[in-house]
Amino acid sequence: MTRLNMREMQENQSGIVTAVRVGGELGRRIRDMGLVPGTTIKIQGRAPLNDPVALRVKGFTLTLRNNEADHIEVEVE
Amino acid sequence: MEAKIALAGNPNSGKTSLFNELTGARQHVGNYPGVTVEKKEGTCVYNGHKMHIVDLPGTYSLTAYSEEEVVARDFLVNEKPDVVIDIVDASNLERNLYLAVQFLEMGVSMCIALNMIDVAKNRGIEIDAEKLSILLGVPVVPTIARTGEGKKDLISAAAKMVQGGKRKGFLEISYGDDLDKAILEMEKEIRANDFLTDTYHARWIALKYLENDKQILLKGQESNPSLSARLEKMVEKVSLHLEKTLNTYPEAMIADQRYGYINSIIKQGVIQQEHGQSRLYMSDKIDKVVTNRFLGPIIMIAILMALYQFTFTYSEAPVGWFESFFGWLGDAASTHLPDGLLKSLVVSGVIDGVGGVLGFVPLIMFMFFGIALLEDSGYLARVAFMLDRVFRIFGLHGSSVMAYIVSGGIAGGCAVPGVMATRTLKSPRERLATLLTVPFMNCGAKLPVFALLIAAFFAENEAEIMLIITLIAWLGALFVAKFLRLTIIKGESSPFVMELPPYRLPTFKGLAIHTWERTWQYIKKAGTVILGISIILWAMMTFPGLPDSRFQEFENMRETVKVAAGTAVIQELEASGEDTEFSQEAQDLKSRLADINSVEAEEGLRNSVAGRMGIALESVSKWAGFDWRTNIALVGGFAAKEVVISALGTAYSLGEVDPEESESLSETLAQTPGWSPLVALSLIIFTIFYAPCFVTVVMIVKESGSWKWGIFSMVFNTALALVLAALVFQVGSAMGILGG
């Protein structure tokens, strides 16, 4: 079990969100979309220019920019 | 019974489909006061009950961060609907319930439409609606909005709630010991002081203080500054404590606990799921191809080109019908009205003005049909996803691309639907920067102007020059957007965090309603503001007209020519129909009279307000190499860019010049001293960047919600155009290139 930044995750890698370290509008948006600690996520792919990233969370697909993913800490196998 | 019902729910939950299904064509689209968020209303009659239905903007939450969420929240508080129908996507229950929970915390009486149960079933998800209803304490009705299934049950559930009176009570979730304790203390203070309690519920106010909600904080500070400060102190204290002990903040904690609450409900057997949540569905498989690193961009270019082709090819015929209709109307008015000012007003002011504007209608319909297709199918979100990296560099959003392309990113679009297309952008700053820069794109009306100048001065390099013009427009738009985002529309980029909705086949009904709404809004504008401005522009190019003495001189000249030709020739000319073959003498007379009329028209234009402006502007425009004739044409171009050509024609005494066939004008320009390839290039640059036509300006005002931005686009764009054109002309002259 290692903790890393969501940006560092590989395609098709799964993990569990452990912390979202950002407040304000961005933090609120991230949490509203269901990225709260304890949630399982899976990286689904990246845009042609490698950013933003698409991930599977709670059964739907969410995209966010790499610099937004930086605030999310994930625990992976 | 009459009732007021609000429809709420997440974006992509099928809310619009349900609204269309419930209200049919009985809809009314407006705006919420003071904001550009759309407000849709309609009525639905069921069992003799008349239900007034308001479609709230689709939101994921109820914070004060976005205009949509504030609008939805304010509506619930101020308008107090009898029932809120929360549309919940059954295939995506957990996240959709997040909004439902917030409604329950607010204490609104709510009924859940468990929508898209068919999609959920296909995905192997079974939901026990009854159990969910018991656990949440609200009615839950399964629906399929696209087909209308469950519609009647839903309405009767809502009607029952209205008749049963308001649900009392509020959902109280535990947000953890620390926050619960703080909330209790804050509630006590709030109740004791009647702090905002006439509008909101005490516990909710405490919750919003903990969530650091800007709108409620502001209201609190206004109503009771000292108590508000005390509450803020309490929030600060518990925040510090949470940070020290759990390394989190209250708003994060509250969101976590809401999801925890939802989880606890779902875990009690509400959902039966065959497969894991990370299973790939059809939609994901499509995405593997459509957003693929190599295939994705190719497919995107193909789809955008197809949209473009569709819009501009298929709308050509109906646009032609509109044009010929207004042409016929103009001719009819010309023949039946007596010569004079009234005729000129009706023909040149009203019919040409309104006709020019309504001529866009088929174009707008086709364009919005295409955009609605891309949006409703879910593809537009993929375009934003793929292009965001590029557009973000310029302070824009991936979704900006649509507006640019529609406006003429591929030469030949139109900025009017382009400005309207920025509605698909949800981030306010990015949206404003986009809608202010789309007019730089080369719309279909600028093309004849370029064609004229290219034919006159760059005939050998036609294709290269057109390509360069397109590139200049794109670079100009993107860099100006960047400049705006660094100066007057400063601010961090809005979060991209966005759902990629599953691909769906749009319904024709949905597309048709969407298209018609946009088109009707445009037509309404055309009938009011645009008609007014069109008349003002006509007046500017007509008044004050020639002094009587000068007019008399022209009359005398005409008389002299006629007398010289003799009565027989005059009679031949007057008796003729359209196709008559004239004798040599009659033709001579006709062309002489036309020459005199042209010179008269030139003098009249020169003497008009627009002409005087053109002459006055020479002192500035000479820096860019333009004389008064070009200036008048550019002033006229504010009405519509193709007017540049007809106005230049009048200014060079060529009589009527058809923008589509401007050879005579381009020959004249090529031979006129004072013109050179350099002047033409300078004029091309100016035409790309200067003030958008007034129809676009009106749309900018409407879409940005303020005249300020309309005026800005006129002043800023013209100043920018002048600087760039002068730069080209002066540098070119100094270096002695292009005949400068």
SSE diagram, text form:
The complex is a heterodimer of chains A (77) and B (740).
Chain A: E1 2-5, E2 14-20, H1 24-32, E3 40-46, E4 53-57, E5 60-64, H2 66-69, E6 72-76
Chain B: E1 2-9, H1 15-23, E2 27-31, E3 38-46, E4 49-55, H2 67-79, E5 83-89, H3 93-106, E6 110-115, H4 117-122, E7 125-127, H5 129-136, E8 140-142, H6 151-163, H7 177-192, H8 202-210, H9 214-223, H10 225-246, H11 250-266, E9 271-273, H12 282-290, H13 295-314, H14 316-336, H15 341-358, H16 361-377, H17 379-393, H18 400-409, H19 415-421, H20 428-437, H21 446-457, H22 462-486, E10 498-500, H23 508-542, H24 548-565, H25 567-575, H26 584-607, H27 609-621, H28 628-636, H29 643-651, H30 663-671, H31 677-689, H32 694-704, H33 707-735
Parallel strand pairs in B: 1-4, 1-5, 5-6, 6-8
Antiparallel strand pairs in B: 2-3, 3-4, 7-9
Helix pairs in contact in B: 3-11, 7-8, 7-10, 9-10, 13-16, 14-15, 15-23, 16-23, 18-19, 19-32, 20-22, 21-30, 21-31, 22-31, 23-32, 24-26, 25-26, 26-27, 27-28, 28-29, 31-33, 32-33
What can be said about the biggest beta sheet of chain B?
7 strands, mixed
- Tell me what portion of residues of chain B adopts beta-strand conformation: 5-15%
User: Major sheet of chain A, described briefly?
Assistant: 6 strands, antiparallel
Shape call of chain B: elongated
Radius of gyration of chain A: 11 Å
